[in-house]
């Protein structure tokens, strides 16, 4: 083999390797499954209000009015054209809520410089979690006000959102004095107010998954 032929062969091999690497990268990217859009019929019926169980399309998060840690009224307009993660918690919770809040902090940190991503926490004990209580809680947990609203409000309104909008709990109830919900679920909502994923907010692997899924929605 002449020197010229040798150089041509080496060049061919190099370009072949580069082509295979690029093709593998392209295939791995295009094979990423698109995130599903969740409608009431997508869920275990136990998670869905009976009036919504047969709905197969066009489910979006209902309008809401809440009060955040700074006493500001929070509505859908504060999440317009945003991707966000919602959860339901209470400040006196000694079990799953501290883990969930720590994991929300991880998400906040990961997307700190991405203005398209926000967080929303709704108290399930709004009679106890006043604005001042939420303010202290937010400060202790490292909540960034522009990124994450920790909210209180009307109990029936919050519980109705949990059951009929976010599908966060299995238990029936009316949001009355004896009603109580407690759930580890994180709900991923896209810019069109559609649910794109539900995750166990207490598990590290689920937090890794939600971060990957948020990244997909931002690309």
From TrEMBL:
Pfam family, any one: SCO1-SenC
Gene Ontology molecular functions: metal ion binding
Keywords, ordered alphabetically: Copper, Disulfide bond, Membrane, Metal-binding, Transmembrane, Transmembrane helix
Disulfide bridge partners, by residue number: 93-97
Domain of life (superkingdom): Bacteria
Transmembrane region(s): 12-29
Binding annotation for Cu cation: 93, 97, 182
This protein's record includes keyword Cell cycle: no
Thioredoxin domain location: 55-219
Family: Belongs to the SCO1/2 family.
Name of protein: Photosynthetic protein synthase II
